[in-house]
Automatic annotation (TrEMBL):
This is Family 10 glycosylhydrolase. It comes from the Bacteria. SUPFAM superfamilies: (Trans)glycosidases. Pfam families: GHL10.
Amino acid sequence: MSTNIRSIVLMLLCGIVLKSCKSIKPSTSTPKTGVEFQQEANVAGEDHMTFTEEQFRRSPEVMREFRAAWIATVANINWPSKPGLSTQEQQEEALKLLDLLKDHHYNAVIFQVRPQADALYNSSLEPWSYFLSGEVGKAPEPWYDPLSFWIEAAHDRGLELHVWLNPYRSHHTTGGELSPKSLVNTHPEIMVPLKNGMWWMDPSKKATQDHSAAVVMDIVKRYDVDGVHFDDYFYPYTSYNDGQDFPDSISYQNYLKTGGSLSIPDWRRDAVNSFVQRIYNEIKAEKPKVKFGLSPFGIWRPGHPSSIAGMDQYDALYADAKLWLNMGWIDYFTPQLYWKINQIPQSFPVLLGWWKSENTLNRHLWPGISLYHGGGAENVDETINQIMITRGMLPESMGTVHWSISPLTTYPNLAQGILNGPYKKQALVPASSWLNSKLPDAPKVRTKIEGQKVVVSWDPIGSEEVFKWVVFYKYGQNWEYKILDRTYKATELQLHRTTNENQLALSAIGITAIGRTGNQSSFNEIEM
């Protein structure tokens, strides 16, 4: 693509972005009336404020965009930096990564807790991960539960935490020597070896599906996670087996003996499809608020759309990712679109547009983008342009997931460029209306003038958990906002009565509560 053409495309997309951002509101639900709010309001001071219907219904804009980064534990890619670190060292590294995300206005983290049929959490189903201690089955010392630690630390920073699991990989080449505690040895009946030294569960076997489903549901039941996430590893890439077919011929012959008639490719796809649907249904039956996300290889099949060339995941990984999106067996869909905008056979916007056309049930479509293009100015621009293109093409539910967090630490100019550009303003995660439509209760708000500052305090009401607060404040005619994490409970925030730049007076404030699925409470405007 020529420079001139590319510039025109980006200008057009940016125009779409600006137009679409104006339509984003903190809530699409019917607000409470002024009378209803008046019954709940508890404004301190001598003058008890009243609210007209018009004042109550005005709703300032707040940006909605999913901003996440993958944190990989396999091969110690992102965390911990190496096996065998002490508990304190592991926790310090974790907090440093989470602080980076918070400070750069991300709002979610996708954390790998099962890299090779093992656990980075306290599990009775699978052994402690080699990537924690350097020994399969060895718990952290001093003992702690890494997943519990990550969840609490992420939530305290206003970050959703999604657990990332590999459903079938049972031993990675970087996972040390095979241990007696490894599932390869404790459940040999469902395992097959690959030529590159990995071991894989046979996805067609009921015992495999039952075990992996039990692992997922054990986490969902015991941990306060926001989402469950699978990536692109279903049947393994053919390169893992030296180009040879997956070694499941015995399983297929047993299937034929029971009267099965599907071809091998269709039989394999059917096993994966039924597992994906099962996981979605079981999660929703247990905890409807927990999102299920999938991140498949970015190309469904070559020729879809016509200009696209590359690996055929439908035939190579036996992953019919288009079907999962069409059927709504996911809450968010994150195809790995790791190619550049002008890489014609795998063009980022062309593939994104095709996946959008397949999103017939309007689930969240938040593409995965690669940050590994480097920290040069051209590559920083590429990353920013991809985020902006996503905003322009998907204004109804904006978002991207970044592979991975390491480039943000390796290339400070990349992290800063994103923060100075598209992530300059904080954003809420888009709500998932099909999961929960209930609004949290609006907080009770009080204001008090102390010299040149206004002290704003609020108390949550109702039984629903509040995950975040949005504090709106208006200088002159312009609304701004701050998104605060859950640690701000029954607390105070100080606002200057005038701006430092042009001495505009603080004219109004308002606070809304955000629930776990992104729903926002009604808004009330308090004039100052």
